Amino acid sequence: MSHSSFRDVSVYGSSIIPFGKFPQLSLSSLARPAVVEALKDSGVERQNIQALYCGSAMSGMMSGQRIARDCGLSGIPIVNAENACSSSATAFREAWIAVASGMIDYALVIGVEKLSSLGGGTIPLDKEDIEVSNGMIMPGLYAMRAQRYLHDYGHTVTDLAKVTVKSRNHGALNPGAQFRTTTTVEEVLASRKVADPITLLQCCPTGDGAAAVVIGPSDIANRHVTKPVKVIGSHLASGKYMSGFRELKVPEITVRCVTELYEEIGLGPEDLDVLECHDAFSIAELLYYEALGLCKPGDGVKLINDGTTSLGGKIVVNPSGGMLSKGHPVGASGVAQIVEIVRQLQGRSGKRQVENAKIGLTHVTGGGTAGFDHGACCIHVFGV
After folding, report:
1. Which tens digits make up the pLDDT trace of 17-46?
2. Which of 107, 114, 137, 325 measures 20 to 30 Å from 16, CA to CA?
3. Distance between CA atoms of 356 and 333, rounded to whole angstroms?
């Protein structure tokens, strides 16, 4: 899809609630504060919102309508997007297409999830899937990726643990993060083993959360807000089925998705100042450094060790604390990443602010399904 045929779109307003476990709250109760604050932040009156896009993976039917009912937004077109962990990033892309095409001017995008209602444990996968029926769960898949990565490149479990340490250092500066305490390599490695070599502190927590943004045409954004953030590019890819052997160190869908997006918008990894990537497990962040073009294969550990991706480094990754510390309420994560990057580019991120951030990227994948690296990957680039 050519971006050049569209009009420019900007994010006007954004909001996110602190992530955690809130079993006493309904889905709409989780989302409502984020919706109200995003509208206020955008300068767009509620009655001017022309469509609502809601991303949620495991919240049942008509999540958008349930939220709209309680926010005084019913009656407008509502689109509910389910695309595993990429659900709300996909919802954002659909809203962007609608505004960029000129179909509408103002859209509200919500990402929301209430995983506490599932009772804990790993995210349930489709039991009819051949790999799932034979015991595949997401920690097991990422453990296999970690084993292969460490074996082939000669890295150690200490290198994996350092990803969590960086994440917790960033999360400690984020008042909305699910985990806001720092940790050490020793503590990470001493935590309960989940799937060798991954320990508990190298897994993202489950929880509840919501985030929302309001988008509209760039050419009238200054009527509403003083510092809108432009959507430079948006790309969605689905997995390619591959029977038999899969190269576990190379997330094919992410490589393909980001390569196509870089080519479309005329930018590359060297242009990025800050990004949020899908660090559901410690090994994932290292794999995505390489897949997104931040370094050569096998060199992800160097970026952790030399501080390149930490606050104060050349390209800051997951300043929010990422999924490992901020939390990963599946369907909410895509928009949550967007809120973080938008606010970084606006200079509104407090103690975790990335200095002089001008261009940022969000990356989220989704789905554990036999024969696919992942089912979906959605990447956005933003700029000021």
Report:
1. 999 999 999 999 999 999 999 999 999 999
2. 137
3. 25
> pLDDT tens digit string along 188-221?
999 999 999 999 999 999 899 999 999 999 999 9
Active site residue 377: no
CA distances (Å), origin 30, targets 51, 76, 89, 157: 20, 21, 18, 37
Please pick, among 71, 85, 204, 257, the residue that the annotation labels catalytic. Answer: 85
Q: How many residues does the chain have?
A: 384
pLDDT for position 176: 96
244 Cβ contact partners less than 8 Å away, ≥ 6 residues apart: none
Could you report the per-residue pLDDT of 328-349, keeping only the tens digit for each? Answer: 999 999 999 999 999 999 999 9
7: which residues sit within 8 A by CB, 6+ positions away?
99, 100, 101, 102, 217, 218, 219
C-alpha 263, offset from chain centre: 22
Residue 217: which H helix or E strand, with range? strand 208-217
130-204+230-383 matches 3-119+207-227 in CATH topology: yes
Q: Which amino acid is at 11?
A: V
Residue-by-residue DSSP string for 107-171: EEEEEEEEGGGGTSSSPP--TTSHHHHTT--HHHHHHHHHHHHHHHHT--HHHHHHHHHHHHHHH
Helices and strands (H, E) in the chain, number of each type: 12, 12
pLDDT tens digit sequence for 90-125: 999 999 999 999 999 999 999 999 998 776 667 766
Supply the CATH classification number for the domain 130-204+230-383. 3.40.47.10
DSSP code for 266: T
Determine whether domain 3-119+207-227 maps to CATH 3.40.47.10: yes
Looking from the CA of 374 toward its CB, the CA atoms found within 13 Å total 27
Amino acid 151: pLDDT: 96
Tell me: the pLDDT tens digits for 230-251? 999 999 999 888 777 778 899 9
Alpha-carbon gap, residue 215 to 294, rounded angstroms: 29
**Domain residues of the chain, as ranges?**
3-119+207-227, 130-204+230-383
Judged against a pLDDT cut of 80, whether residue 362 lies above it is answered with yes
**How large a percentage of the chain has pLDDT more than 90?**
85
* Placement of tokens 């300068």 in the chain: 43
Q: What are phi and psi of 326, to 5 degrees?
A: -65, -30
